[in-house]
Specification:
This protein is mainly beta. It is built from four helices and 22 strands. Strands 2, 3, 4, 5, 6, 7, 8, 9 and 10 form a nine-stranded antiparallel beta sheet that branches. A seven-stranded antiparallel beta sheet has the order 1-19-16-21-13-12-11. β11 and β12 form a beta hairpin.
Length: 355
Amino acid sequence: MASAPDGPAGPADRDRLAGRGHCHKKAGSLARGQFALELTAEDAGWSWSSLRVVEIEPGASCTIDTGGEEMLVLPLAGSCTVSCTVSADGEGGVRYALAGRTSPFAGASDACYLPRATTAVIESPAGGRFALPGAKATSTLAPAYVPVESVPVELRGAGSCSRRVANVCFPGNVEAERLIVCEVLTPAGNWSSYPPHKHDEERDGETELEEVYYFEVAPGAGPDRAHHEGVAFQRVYGTKERPIEVLAEVRDRDVVLVPHGWHGPTMAAPGYDLYYLNVMAGPGRRAWLACDDPAHAWVRETWVGQDVDPRLLAGSAGAGSAGAGSAGAGPAGAGIGSSGIGSSGIGGGGTGSGT
């Protein structure tokens, strides 16, 4: 197991910093310099995971230095080019064109991986919003383009627990040292990250991973959408040995930290579709292995024979035949209003676990 970088490193430090106020960061509270959101591992009070979000005006650019972190450039809204130079190897730079998407509700996106000790210039002719999930790293790997076709997208759960998950940066599709990134789309009124699960110790069937939840809430479909601010809820709770208690009312572009403990459900309010980005990293294996809270694991059995929420299938070529494991894909139905959920197509299913 790797030793932690400088700063709060052990479970005692994370337990001390955990709590309702520390774990919920409201939109705008993490703005710093060129970043609309900058959450370093030190800000979080832990050792590995980070997240930044940059908003680029049309025709403008921003320059980032990854320093001791590996990062992903992931378009949330808009397209961009990324020109990067890895200072550690002294070789010439590479340039990637990211097609991106109109919003995180429009389906999965392409991305690019940046190793540590890299300088990157992000340019966006039409402007946009871009996430930079990161993790502390000691190895300098090669930068890489992540085509959208390489991102596994799956349906999980069934009925009111249906959600769609895109595994953007996982061992199967991106070579990285520690960074794990996924995205979840939860239709209005549904629950995800359910049953509650945890990944806070290294053992068989579980890995120790710090986790960031970054939320975007789609506008409602009411007559005056500009004044319909959506809401969602996030639960995090611990054990007797490592207590933590969070029940956060989250709004668009809020962040919730999960230093340890059971987390879930994530609840999308009726009328407002929910997107969240998960950033994970830890000291052990680069694998997302989570275990359900035994008190609620039985809920999975209730999904057998239920259809996946048809809103996740609308507009997804072939999604109905791909299935969703024991849940069953069910017939395609009406889309989720103007949010565009389901517009990019869905790969093979599977009820999955955790998120």
